[in-house]
Each structure stands twice: as C-alpha cells, then as structure tokens.
C-alpha cells in the first residue's frame, strides 16, 4: 500500500456548466448549468471546504448534454466571483493552439491572483474533432500531441526565451508577458490530465502535475498511481493524484442505496448506449487495451466518469472512511459529482468533511 500524504486531502467538484447534470438519467437533478446558479454554487463550495472546481468541456450536443458553456471563459467567470477557489479549465489539444491557451491562462491567472489551472484532455469524442474539420488522431498520437502541448505550456510560462521543437508544436525565442503568477511551490499554473491507458500514465509521469483516475476500487486506483510514480521517478519528478467519485450521502445506507438504484433505474438508456459506444471506441484504439471505460458496464456509464465505482454511497461516516481508504492508497484529491449540487455540497461540508478531518488527525497521531 502507498504511504499516504500527511497533507489534508483536497476536494474538487465537477462544475455543472453542461446541461443534464452529472448522471445520464431522467431522475430529478436539482442542478442548473446557468451562470447564476454556478456562481452561487462556487461560493458555497468555497465555504464548504472545496479547494478546486473542474469546468468540463463539450463542444457539441451529445449524450444528455444538449447545451454547454465553454470551459475557459466559464472558469474565468467563476474565478472572478470567488476568493480562494482554484478553477481548472478542461482543454483539448488539437482544438487549441498551446501558445494562445498559454496567453489566455496567464491573463486569467493574473486576474485571479494565481488560481487558474488546466486539465489537458487528449480526447475521446471523435465527432468534436471531425465536425469541426480537425483530424482525429489515433490514440497514441493524441497522447503524444498532449505531451508536447503540456511541454509547450510550461516552457512558455517559465522561460524568457522559450524554445521547443517537436512533431506537433514549435517555439522560437518567444517571451510571454505577463507570465502567470509564480511563488513558493508554484512555478506555473497546475496542469492536470486524466486517462487510464499506459500512454496516459506515461505522459503523467513525464510532464503532468496531477493525474486524474476515473472512478475505480481503491486497489485499481493504487495500481494506476504506482505506474505513474514509476515513470515519474525515472524523470526525477513528483505527481499528485485525484480520483473521480459520485457522492450520495444520506442518514442511512439504505436511503443512499435507494437513490443510487433510482438513478440507474431511470437512466436514459439511449443516451447511455450512445455514450458507451463512443467512449469504448476511443478506448479500444489503445495498444494495451487499458483505455478509459473499457471495463465499464451499463451502470458505470450512467455517471460519465465511472463515479459510482468509487463507492461513495452511504452515511457520512461510511463515506468518510471510504474516502480515507483512497488517501491511504495514494490519492491527494477527490473530484466529486452530486445529484442536487447546492444541497449536497452544503451537506458534504457540514457532515462528511468534519469526519474526514477527524480520521486524518487520528491517523497522523499513529505515525511514528
């Protein structure tokens, strides 16, 4: 088992900037994709113990997400509406030029006092590229491009005479001004990424600051963390780790399980099937067969990133103990989705997070 961090576990939430909520189901979701709702949510999350928010990205209507706000502009709006929250904008290499994005993030970072971050998405939805007239690369090439994209961002953010010569991107004596906010422990905005495949794990070990794992068992997450750490060690780097989860906390475990059953029973089967076909096609293109969603069943796919598999369903105390198990396996952050965001985020801050902190303190006392 991994040695858990002595730092408090961090928490992030999925920004509902896409219509349809966080589950592909016809169950009532008291969640809204509007700007006004999201500002209220961001401020509540900030006060409820969340340090990060992740603005998801969809470019076209798909699989229960009829409407989408663009991630970078929406992230800046949330940054300017909050005081401490760090907002991570999901971006696609191939649809962004890295120099343009680097400039955009530098400005957002300056305006927010150093709270901007990016999640580099290599891409699973072919139509988002082809319908915009952009080429759809095979799996390994998408990750090679993403790795160069991240190297470009970091080079332009930190060098006064940026140089890079790659297969996808080039830099020639370029000096970005103003640069992002820098300080102790932060040379540039944080760079996140996801992915299950060996290509994704290798890229994370070589260039990313954070690696997001889809929902999985503690043992499954630990195996991914081990692979990334092995690559990072070869390159003299350290990577931090986040795990996706969908949280359903109720007074009793039976109540929580009943909510999960209702979500699945009322799933939009046509949308889930379409989503499953798209993501499995993307994942099957991996050389190792370990792409995202490859072993996901119907119930898993009702929550976009396998969030049910993390098992955060039950009473606040049960969920807190489950969360600590992920920390013991090497997780530094949990990325959470909810059914009714305002109610559930507030409930998390009041009833789940205090137990997590008590358990963390108790574990620290046992450390020799």
From TrEMBL:
Enzyme class: oxidoreductase
This protein's record includes keyword Glycoprotein: no
InterPro entries cross-referenced by the UniProt entry: DMSO2_SphG, Luciferase-like_dom, Luciferase-like_sf, SsuD_RutA_monooxygenase
EC number annotated for this UniProt entry: 1.14.14.35
Record-level Gene Ontology MF annotations: monooxygenase activity
KW Oxidoreductase (keyword) present: yes
Domain spans labelled Luciferase-like: 11-332
Pfam families to which the protein is assigned, alphabetical: Bac_luciferase
Record keywords, A-Z: Flavoprotein, FMN, Monooxygenase, Oxidoreductase
Matching NCBIfam families: LLM_DMSO2_sfnG (TIGR04021)
Name of the protein in question: Dimethylsulfone monooxygenase SfnG
Organism: Glycomyces mayteni
Gene: sfnG
